[in-house]
Amino acid sequence: MKKKRVVIALGGNALGKNYEEQKEAVAKTAKVIVDLVQQDMEIIITHGNGPQVGMIQNAMDQLACTSEDYKETPLPTCVAMSQGYIGIDLQNAIKYELYSREMDVKVSTILSQVEVDKEDEAFKSPTKPIGRFLTKEEAAKNEENGIPCMEDAGRGYRIVVASPMPKRIRELQTIKTLVDAGHIVITCGGGGIPVVNDGGRLSGVSAVIDKDNVSSLLAAELDADYLIILTAVEKVAINFGRENQRWLSDLTVDEAREYIAQDQFAKGSMLPKIEAAIRFAESAEGRHTLITLLDRAADGIAGRTGTVIHK
Predict the structure, then answer these.
(1) In 3D, which of 257, 253, 251, 254 has the Cα closest to residue 292?
(2) Which residue of 162, 214, 223, 247 could cross-link 207, Cys pair, CB 3.0 to 4.6 Å?
(3) DSSP bridge pairs for 276
(4) Is position 23 annotated as part of the catalytic site?
(5) Which residue in the list 191, 192, 211, 306 is annotated as catalytic?
(6) Is 150 helix (H, G, I), strand (E, B) or coil?
(7) Strand partners for 238
(8) Separation CA 86–CA 190 (nearest Å)
(9) pTM assigned to the model
């Protein structure tokens, strides 16, 4: 029987807010990943980097301010750094969990570049929050210095950068080769390193690609059966936070679009996940997107929980 191919998009809850938390978080995440591997699934993992890339850029900028020997570090370079250190922590945690269960499965992390359109309208209107949460006063000071900030889903203010749509995953063939060879692959971390193609030369651009958008593209290109978008809630809800709140277990693409038209999903949190879910679900027959909690992923695939979006 053909194995189910599953792309899992890990959110911040699966990674922690700092280095120490990340070490603990990835150990728990690894157990869920290996549970799915034991159920005979091919697993490809993507992850976010919103807090991490912002902290890396801030640290590098502070270093540049202390010495003439250091220059400002471009954002795509910071994305690459976040891919590397998050990827290796995930890889090692998964390898240890496999070792603990006496399972001989290879794990590979692929630093990936993702091509975007340099004319993408996103560059004119930054919307992607990165870094730590700020107070209203800190955000106002940033705005005065020309650094755009926005309120992030009721949780505070954050710096925002451009978030163009992914067009092409440059390392796709390498990823396919490893998945076909039976590897668990960690890739497209933080949405991938954003690049534009200048006559064959790839150049980084100042942006952070939404990890759910690139996960949707990756899942479609790999002909996956499932895209799992992990978040902080077990199911998607309409009328969220109100007396008439209703949790949703099953959504067609048309129903999801209707709820989007009704502004049911917060722009800074659930909306991009629903939009990415729709793109994968409608990309071919038989493809499903599951949105749920990390520790309920297996139950979601079995149809016992989560929100499934399909044609």
Answers:
(1) 251
(2) 162
(3) none
(4) no
(5) 211
(6) strand
(7) 246
(8) 9
(9) 0.89
User: Could you confirm whether 267 is annotated as catalytic?
Assistant: no
What tokens appear for 306 in the block? 């989560």
- Distance separating alpha carbons of residues 229 and 216, to the nearest angstrom: 9
**C-beta of residue 72 within 8 angstroms of C-beta of residue 5:** no
Write out the two tokens for 296: 């309920």
Please give the backbone phi and psi of residue 119, each rounded to the nearest 5 degrees, phi first. -100, 10
Measured between its terminal Cα atoms, the distance across the chain in Å is: 24
Cβ neighbours of 140 (radius 10 Å) = 12
Neighbours of 99 (CB within 10 A): 11
Q: Is 16 a catalytic residue?
A: no
**Which distant-in-sequence residues (6+ apart) come within 8 Å of 44 by Cβ?**
5, 6, 7, 8, 175, 179, 184, 185, 187, 218, 219, 222, 224
Q: Determine whether 12 is an active site residue.
A: yes
Residue-wise DSSP of 57-118: HHHHHHHHHH-TT--PPPHHHHHHHHHHHHHHHHHHHHHHHHHHTT----EEEE--EEE--T
Pairing of β 107-110 and β 201-204: unpaired
Give 173 or 127, the one with higher predicted confidence. Answer: 173
Burial label, 2 (beta-carbon count in 10 A; 0-12, 13-18, 19+): exposed
Across the beta sheet with 201-204, the strand order is 168-169, 113-115, 193-198, 201-204
Given 54, 128, 192, 306, which residue is catalytic? 128
Q: What are the tens digits of pLDDT across the range 208-253?
A: 899 999 999 999 999 999 999 998 899 999 999 899 999 999 999 9
Q: Which of 49, 213, 273, 300 is catalytic?
A: 273
